Amino acid sequence: MDVLIRPVQQGDFHVIKSVISKGLYEHYFSVYMNTAFWSIKVQSAMFILSGALSRVLQSDVACAFAIYISLQLLGLFYAKHLWRQHMDEDMKELATWKRFTDFYCNDSGGGFWVAMDTMTSAVVGSIGVKFRPDLKTLEIKRLSVSAKHRRSGIGGKLLMKLLDHCDKMKEEEESNLRGITLLVNVTQQDAIRVYRKHGFKLRKSHFVSCFGGLSYGTLCEYVRPL
Ligand SMILES: CC(C)(COP(=O)(O)OP(=O)(O)OC[C@H]1O[C@@H](n2cnc3c(N)ncnc32)[C@H](O)[C@@H]1OP(=O)(O)O)[C@@H](O)C(=O)NCCC(=O)NCCS
């Protein structure tokens, strides 16, 4: 599929919101499996609760196991609910077109691009960048490609467009830009592979609270010098 990477337009807004939110939403399962599933705190609570419940019900080991599996499924549903809340919080800059343009397009160094299928004119991916004057860095945000168009080079093309923009900005402004940064959850391995392929290196990683403090995940900061 041929794609054109072009600056975002108002007519793209609802499609990019949907592509971005679906791309984020799909991670709740892997976050749960990487965190709560391996959390001693969460698993011990489920274990103790299933033991207590099976005692109350005067049932056998098989029943205790069934209760434990049910609690695990409940945990997964609860994680889905909490993840949706987290996404609403995380996607604040995408609440309205005005907020979105204020955030990405109305300051120097910022920008937002979409990938458009040249045959159908459908928007299938997005990427944005925000200048961080405090750190003298550019921060990549919202790299996302719709699920059925992945693994055909679109994510890489979006990233290359953005890297071109960053290089131009460095040349034009003779600024003291230090580099390009981004934050990514360790569960987003597809994205991490694309970033590493384009020269990003892990700077640091830290634990973040997940699922209302029930568990912890790992957030990684990747950097590419300019
Ligand atoms: C991360 C993401 C944007 C990557 O998009 P993508 O379009 O699949 O990226 P690319 O196609 O450029 O590269 C992905 C893989 O496809 C491979 N690929 C590229 N062109 C290909 C082709 N023509 N045929 C087969 N494979 C191809 C690449 O080599 C790469 O493989 P690798 O991971 O084994 O190295 C996408 O997976 C996504 O939207 N994920 C959900 C949202 C997300 O996690 N965003 C990151 C936020 S920080």
Automatic annotation (TrEMBL):
Keywords: Transferase. The keyword Thylakoid does not apply. Signal peptide: none annotated. InterPro entries: Acyl_CoA_acyltransferase (IPR016181), GNAT_dom (IPR000182), NAT_camello-type (IPR050769). Residues 69-221 form the N-acetyltransferase domain. Pfam families: Acetyltransf_1 (PF00583). SUPFAM superfamilies: Acyl-CoA N-acyltransferases (Nat). It comes from the Eukaryota. This is N-acetyltransferase domain-containing protein. PROSITE patterns: GNAT (PS51186).
